[in-house]
Amino acid sequence: MITIAIAGKPNCGKSTFFTAATLAHAEIANYPFTTIDANHGVAYLRTPCPCQELGVPCTMCTGGVRFIPVELIDVAGLVPEAHMGKGLGNQFLDHLREADAIIHIIDGSGSTDAEGNPVDAGSHDPRSDIGFIEREMAMWIYGILAKNWAKMQRSTQQKTFNIIDAVAENLAGLKITHEQVRDAERGAGINLKSCTDDELIAFCDILVRMSKPMVVVANKVDQSTGEILAGLKETDISFATAAGELALRKAVEGGFITYLPGDPTFAVADGVTLTDAQKRGLGAIAQAMEIIGGTGVQQAINGVVFDLLDMIVVYPVEDENKFCDGKGRVLPDAFLMKRGATPHDMAYQVHSDIGDGFLYAVDAKTKMRIKETHELKHGDVIKIVSTKK
Length: 389
Known about the structure:
By secondary structure, this protein is an alpha/beta fold. 35% of the residues lie in helices and 18% in strands. The chain has helices at 14-22, 50-54, 90-94, 132-146, 149-155, 163-170, 178-188, 197-211, 226-233, 242-253, 276-292, 297-308, 343-350, 352-356; strands spanning 3-7, 39-48, 65-74, 101-107, 214-219, 238-239, 257-258, 267-268, 311-317, 335-338, 358-363, 368-370, 381-386. The strands form 3 sheets. It has a 6-stranded mixed β-sheet.
């Protein structure tokens, strides 16, 4: 399962974003370091279900919308110089090690300073918070490597020693691969065998961007001033009102509105009469949604997986005519795969034995046999034919 970490300084709305996306309990309060241990929950990608295109009844979606689980981690608040122990230090950087990607939440209302302390709304420029997590992570990784760097560089005199392998092994717990280390060395334009400290830091910076890709989401935009919002729109970031999303999901639970996460609007449920306070609250959310095209929460999760990680969704079936598994369930599974994946890759994701015995695949939409090297597309429905069950 894809793992996405939610990170940022204290009081930027990370825990609200996490709770809205997962409806899991996360302590929410207006003081630093409310979250001490990382919270784990399940959020969902939103994508059209092929059942609509295929014209078959499906019990795995909601009105033609398929929701696919991903893991979400709510990391406690980070502050500048966390790698030096400031705030609660490296223990929270450590929570980011298992993430495939990171959503950096910034306070789009400008009502918290660089360390997350409450200040007057609009008095802090949220643009200044962009990039600090990458810097902290780069310095954290540099600190890990620096402990053994002198020894590693001495070892390069041995013919059998490969410094790229050594660095990758040193950082394996962070989901960093040999290929990423090699590409970061090339990207930095350095030779790890003889680099300076400054060059090693530059290498770590590139390595972080490769191994832990990140999107920035300005939260609390419903509380932002026109000037702050205008400045944020000049940057390449996304926008959200996590509190608005949470309120909508609670309203759905209460039967007050109809809304699916990711919808650009919501509607009052038939037969429901809202109080004046409810009308004002929902009206304010509707105004924010009109500005940013929704609440931004679902859009951020989808953007990470489909755009940042470049994943696609494919659907394995056993019967290409009825689009079902052996039990008659229509489109029972949805697999997230890297763009460029092949039917043989998909076979291994179903089961290693299926991959070992792979013969060919069938595109269930066209009924055509496809080769093992065929590049899968988003929304493909595929039957795998294998010598093994």
